Amino acid sequence: MDWFLLDLLLMALIYVPLERIWPQYPEQGTFRKGWVQDVVYFMSTHLPIQILSFLVLLPATQATKYLGVPVLQQSIARLPWLLQFFLAVVVADLAEYFIHFGALHKVPFLWRFHAIHHSSKALDWIAARAPTLWTTHLSADLSLFP
After folding, report:
1. Helix H or strand E encompassing 19
2. Do 26 and 114 touch, CB atoms closer than 8 A?
3. Residue among 125, 124, 103, 123 nearest 114 (CA)
4. Torsions phi, psi of 28, nearest 5?
5. If you write DSSP's letter for every residue of 52-95 in order, what string do you get?
6. Distance CA 31, CA 27 (A)
7. Is pLDDT at 1 greater than 60 in this prediction?
8. What is the pLDDT of residue 133?
């Protein structure tokens, strides 16, 4: 099974029950108007996003050889593995947050492309996963650098 189908299945298993238990919009059903379009959009962008992200990973890891701060890298390397993992997740999430809200929402040129992600008439878990290919690529891949 492809990763993007597995991702779609796992997200549906997690988010559909949560939306039924604590609905933001109680009158909105799971199979709302426009849900098929959002699923098709998810499936048509998710695989290219994964490929592009993989292609950016090598240059990002190579850039750390030249852009990294050796003292900081050594300090982090001495931390327990679990703490390193937690720190990496927090730093990557913060980077993506500031790229997303600091750039994609505030820079008019970038907002014109990113606004599509916010144009859904009915918001739920699958609509939120329907961003444009290049804005997702930009925010996710730039978050690899820290």
Report:
1. helix 3-21
2. no
3. 103
4. -90, 125
5. HHHHHHHHHHHHHHHH--HHHHHHHHTS-HHHHHHHHHHHHHHH
6. 12
7. no
8. 58
Tell me if 141 sits within 8 A of 56, measured CB to CB: yes
Amino acid at 146: P
Place of tokens 């925010």: 139
Whose tokens are 């993992």? That residue is 85
Residue 31 confidence (pLDDT): 81
- Kindly report, residue by residue over 86-137, the tens digit of the pLDDT: 998 898 888 888 888 888 889 898 888 788 777 777 777 777 666 565 666 5
Q: Is the pLDDT of residue 42 over 80?
A: no
CB atoms within 10 A of CB 131: 23
Q: For the chain, how many residues are written?
A: 146
Catalogue the long-range contacts made by 113-118 (C-beta closer than 8 Å, 24 or more residues apart).
Answer: none
